[in-house]
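Hi V.,

Quick status before I head out on leave. The structure for the redesign project is tokenized and pasted below; the design run finished overnight.
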């Protein structure tokens, strides 16, 4: 993800940039260079343009028809990809928000004098988020958690090696298993604190303890909902038939424009024609490549969501919250507007 402040970027500084623009996206596509080579070849192979101006007018009128269709398809596809991108981003934010709520509940409900117990009721939630992001970034089918991510979770003390082995062998939905571990740990702690015994069965909990557990349960299931929506949206892309039709239309239109532009700029130096066509096709292919990148924003593209930073931010925030032992003062004087002695009542 490339962050920028549009208010502090001039027109020329934007044009001159490479990183974070469509330039690297377009330059890495073979279509751009093949179409440019085709346009160059047309200068030598195409017959001279007709001398009749009316024939040229009809030629360019015919070119406007596919151009209009491609513009509609490209804008429609890009709009859907843009909407999908922000839906996926909002689900990532929702997952991180649920993790913060879980940590706040752990802090409120569990003894501050035992930071180890607090961490062990928190770490599995962070591990679940880390596993989910790793699966989203995976290019394998079915997606897998990379070994580097397992090592990172162990290094951050989110999982021990036995838990890693258990998760690797687990055939179900891996991110949800650590969440159930956290719920089980919280349930047993609440049961122990309320004197319900070591088993911690829900039927043995008092109404107050049961209400406390349900608040944790709601947060955990909110997080699971965001994870499930992310996984399902990733597995259900924009229909391939539409993408195929758009790709064929774009390449066909650029091929026709590349051929007809030879007639339009007949007699001009080759570099002028090449530069004009290169800018036109770069804009068209660039918009298409940006839309494709937004449709699956988990990976290494310029527009992709930085899931590694999100995971690290959640971990850093958890450590900071659990490490905060501040006891805010309860004796600070109130504003004069709230002091009854200073409130003037109307007669």
């Amino acid at each position: 993800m490339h962050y920028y402040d549009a208010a502090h970027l001039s027109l020329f500084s934007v044009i001159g940039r490479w990183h974070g623009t469509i330039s690297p996206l377009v330059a890495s596509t073979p279509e751009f260079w093949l179409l440019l080579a085709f346009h160059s070849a047309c200068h030598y192979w195409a017959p001279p343009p007709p001398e009749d101006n009316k024939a040229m007018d009809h030629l360019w009128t015919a070119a406007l028809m596919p151009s209009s269709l491609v513009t509609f398809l490209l804008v429609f596809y890009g709009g859907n990809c843009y909407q999908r991108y922000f839906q996926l981003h909002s689900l990532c934010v929702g997952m991180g928000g649920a993790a913060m709520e879980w940590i706040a509940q752990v802090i409120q409900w569990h003894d501050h004098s035992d930071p180890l117990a607090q961490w062990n009721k928190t770490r599995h939630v962070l591990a679940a988020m880390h596993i989910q992001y790793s699966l989203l970034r995976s290019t394998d089918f079915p997606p897998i958690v990379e070994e580097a991510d397992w090592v990172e979770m162990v290094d951050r003390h989110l999982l021990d090696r036995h838990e890693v082995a258990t998760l690797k062998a687990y055939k179900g939905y891996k991110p949800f298993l650590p969440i159930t571990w956290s719920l089980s740990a919280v349930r047993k702690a609440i049961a122990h604190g309320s004197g319900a015994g070591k088993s911690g069965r829900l039927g043995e909990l008092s109404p107050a303890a049961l209400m406390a557990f349900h608040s944790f349960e709601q947060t955990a299931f909110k997080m699971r909902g965001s994870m499930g929506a992310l996984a399902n949206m990733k597995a259900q892309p924009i229909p391939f038939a539409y993408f195929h039709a758009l790709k064929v239309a774009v390449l066909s239109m650029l091929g026709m424009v590349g051929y007809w532009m030879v007639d339009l700029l007949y007699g001009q130096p080759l570099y002028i024609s090449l530069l004009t066509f290169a800018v036109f096709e770069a804009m068209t292919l660039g918009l298409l490549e940006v839309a494709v990148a937004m449709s699956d924003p988990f990976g290494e593209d310029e527009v992709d969501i930085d899931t590694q930073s999100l995971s690290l931010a959640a971990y850093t925030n958890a450590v900071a919250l659990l490490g905060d032992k501040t006891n805010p003062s309860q004796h600070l004087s109130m504003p004069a507007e709230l002091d009854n002695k200073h409130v003037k009542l109307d007669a």
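Above is the designed sequence. Residues 54-322 form one domain.

G. will cover questions while I'm gone.

Best,
W.
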